[in-house]
Every structure is written in structure tokens, then in C-alpha cells.
Amino acid sequence: MKCSNARCLCGVNLIRKVLITVLLSFLPVLPAWALDWDGDGIDDPLVIQVGEDKNLDWNVVESEKNFSDVEPLPEGSSFGILGDHLAPATWLGGEVPQLGYVTLSDEEEIDWVIRGDSTHTISFGQEGDTAIAGGDFNGNGFADVAVLQDDGSYIVRRDAFGNVEGGEITPSTVVYQFRTRQAKRGQATFVGIDEFTQHYPALVMSRSLRRTNKNRHVLVYVNASGETVRQRLAGVCRGTITYAAPIVSESENYLLTVHQMKPTKHQIRVHRISDGALVSRTGYRTKGVVLVGDFMGKGYQQFGVRQPGALRVIDPFESSDPEIINTGSGVLADGVNVKSFSDNSGLGAVCPTIAPVVGGMLWKPASEHSGAPREGKPGMFFKVGAPGDSCVSVYANNGQKVSQMGHYNAGTLEYGKRYYMGWGCGDGKSGSQIATAAKAAAGNTDVYVKTSGNICRGPINPTQRNGAL
């Protein structure tokens, strides 16, 4: 996570994963990047909901109960606020995970906050660093904290919480070094190599192919001898890598990557780390979180893709039908967290589902009505999927609100249900002012309009027409 003063609840998108060791008959130990909250050896998705007070309430869908209900965790009430990055992990060692989040302090330091019997906070890293949560870089069962700096320093605080709540492990710091260019261009993560219980610093690099819009990808990692290894990943793919995380089969370590090809079109690829071979690829069209864990109880890991109200679990290692876990609304999380405090990952906290503007919806950059508050102001019309509220919010792609518009009751639905920046609770901003606010908040001018069912429609260029009635 690179840090900026904007707090961003990461749904999908703070990287998350944690080491949990599960005893199995055919493996001595197996790490689970998702988290087993009920102790039955099968991983359980976390569902984080944002309360009216903007506090985070942590819930779990337990496999022990056949994933039938979303239930609150006793220790999960009002832990963190909207904008904090999710980081559950086995911070205190063993197989019982703890809740955690990462945030930027007023002193521009990265604060790591966990909740065991009580709440503990350490500061490690600073604004501009990328924070990596969930790795276990010495393989002892305690999750470690790590940051990647712009100069290529990948700094790990091993056993960061090993000396709290009766623990007797003294934290220690180790520094790994990548090239500056790699640090600035690569997607930070960690991987397993020979052992399932120990992780190593890693970056995934993309290189554009000439005369094509496709990219090749290379995994760069530091091995047990301290050597930097480059492993080319087989195949080419459009788009940019937005997420990378370890995933394991019964006998080997793999790397999972998520490629964003279009705003709502993604592809998940799974490569074997030893030779870079591509063993699985899956496309999906939502902009949801991808979780990794053993959700099927097979003794090895699968991945799940967030869909409206559910998690679709897919086995990349053997052919089988996907399984659906009903999760309700909220942001899903597992244990790997690699995300920047200065990138745009918080929209999932506002809207669990991101969907494009479709037929029956129209964004107009300026109303033609003259002599009225609506004149020259943007508006959005809905013949389908209309919001139920009288005020509708507009967000930048990091989840920061940049505008709002009010419902105009025209007495007719000839043009659908209409909302304008220049009416009712609308803030009166023009399309260019909204674009400027979005760029200041998130680095680009795309915006999203929150509609019915907690769906954010976009991306929308606020200075152009989007959609059609």
C-alpha cells in the first residue's frame, strides 16, 4: 500500500493474505492465505461492512455452518474506519487469526493496528511506501509487516507483534534490495519457493510488446540465498496487473495475478513459480475482490471472485464446477494485503459492485434547461436501475466523494428518473469542476455514480455524454 493522507478501505484491492498452517495427512503444513475463523480446516471469507458512523464492522461466513449465514465477529465491532486498509493475519502466531488494519497517521507514518485480547499498534513505514501485510518471511507462523520504498528497499519487520500478549519473540528487521526501476514499475507481493510456510519478497513486472497492446510479465524475487531471481511468466496478456498473490496446490507453489483489461473486464492467471508455466486463466467482468484460500475443503487453495452478494470459488488446479458462497453486501477480505497508500483502491468500500453505464441510463455533462438552477449543470437520467434516494453521490475511483446531485420530480418518466447537480441537494458543480475534483482525489477524472443495490455505475467522463436512454 503506498500511503497518502486519503484513507482508503481496500476491498479488492488492498492486498491481503495471511499465513495459517493447517495440519494435513499428505503435507506437513499448508499455508492458507484466507483465514480459518472456525477452526475446521476450511477457510472462511470475511465480510466488512461500513456503519453509519463510518466505523468498520467485521463479519464472517463460516464453513462449519455450510456458509449459510453472515455473522458478526465478537471482536469485530467498530474496529477501524472507512478508509483503513484491511489486514487480518496470524499476527500473534498459531492457527487463530487476528483482525488488523493499516492506516496513515497524522505524522505521515504507517500504523499497523491489530486486535487480540486488546488492541496493539506499531508504526512501520511512511507516506509514499507500499505496505505489504500477511507474509511470513522466517516461516515461524507469525505474520510479518513489510514496506517497499521507491529506492527498491523491501524492508521486513519480522514477528512485529511477537512480543505482545505474553509473546517472547523479539521483532527484528531485515532489508532486501530490488532495483529502483523495478520498485517503481513492479507490483509488490511475496511468494513461496521450496517450502510452503516461508515467504520471500517479490515483484511482478510488465513489459509492453512492440506494435501490440499486449504485455509480457516477469516475476522477480529474492531467494533463500539472498540472490535476485527473474522468472519469465509464460504467455502474453493485455492490461495491467492490479493484484498478485501466492497460491499453492497439493505439491507446488504458484503465483496468481489479476489483469485489468478494461474498467470491468479482468483476467486471473495462475503460473507455476518454478518454471513460469501458465496453468490456468479465468476471465470475469465485475470489479470485485479476488480471495485465495481453501474454501472447498480440498487441502489446497482455490480462488474466489466477488460477485453481487456472493463469492464464486474456482479451482485452478483440477476441473470442477465453481461453488457459490453467499456473502451479502460488504467488502470481502482474506489475509494478503499489498496495496499502496497513494493509489486508488477505496471505491469497493463505498460500492461492493462496480458496473458500467448501460442502455436506459444517460449522463449529460450540461443540461439544456435555461433560466433555472439546472442550466448548464450535469445530470443523470435513469429508465433502469434508478437510485431510491433523493440525493445521489458521485465518487472518484478511490472512493472519495466529489459531488452530489438531487432528484428532480418532473411529473413524468418520459426521460426516466432525473438527477441534477443544480437541483435540490445538488452541489452545483459543473462537469469540468467534477473532473478536476476527481483528478485531485484519485489522479484521474473518472467518476462513479452510486445507484440502487449499492452499485456504482462508471467509469464516467463527467465532461462527456455517457450512456443512452
Count of DSSP H/I helices:
3
Task: Walk across the major sheet and give the strand order.
Answer: 26-33-32-29-30-31-28-27-34
Give the overall shape. globular
Low-pLDDT runs: 3-33, 339-345
Quaternary state of the chains: single chain
Radius of gyration: 22 Å
Whole-number total of structural domains: 2
What does the main sheet amount to? 9 strands, mixed
Class of the largest domain in CATH?
Mainly Beta
Strand content: 35-45%
| CATH structural architecture of the largest domain | 6 Propeller
Instruction: Work out the number of β strands.
Output: 34
Mean pLDDT: 82
Structural class: mainly beta
Molecular structure report:
This protein is mainly β and 469 residues long. The chain folds into two domains: 46-345, Neuraminidase (6 Propeller); 356-468, no CATH class. It has three helices and 34 strands. It has helices at residues 180-185, 347-350, 431-442, and strands at 46-50, 56-61, 70-72, 85-86, 99-104, 109-115, 119-126, 130-133, 145-148, 153-158, 172-177, 187-191, 200-208, 214-222, 228-238, 240-248, 253-262, 265-272, 278-284, 290-293, 302-307, 310-314, 323-326, 331-333, 337-340, 353-355, 361-364, 379-382, 391-396, 401-408, 417-420, 447-451, 455-460, 466-468. The strands form eight sheets. The protein has a nine-stranded mixed beta sheet with strand order 26-33-32-29-30-31-28-27-34. A four-stranded antiparallel beta sheet has the order 3-2-1-24. Strand 17 (253-262) and strand 18 (265-272) form a beta hairpin. The longest helix has 12 residues, at 431-442. The chain is globular, with a radius of gyration of 22 Å.
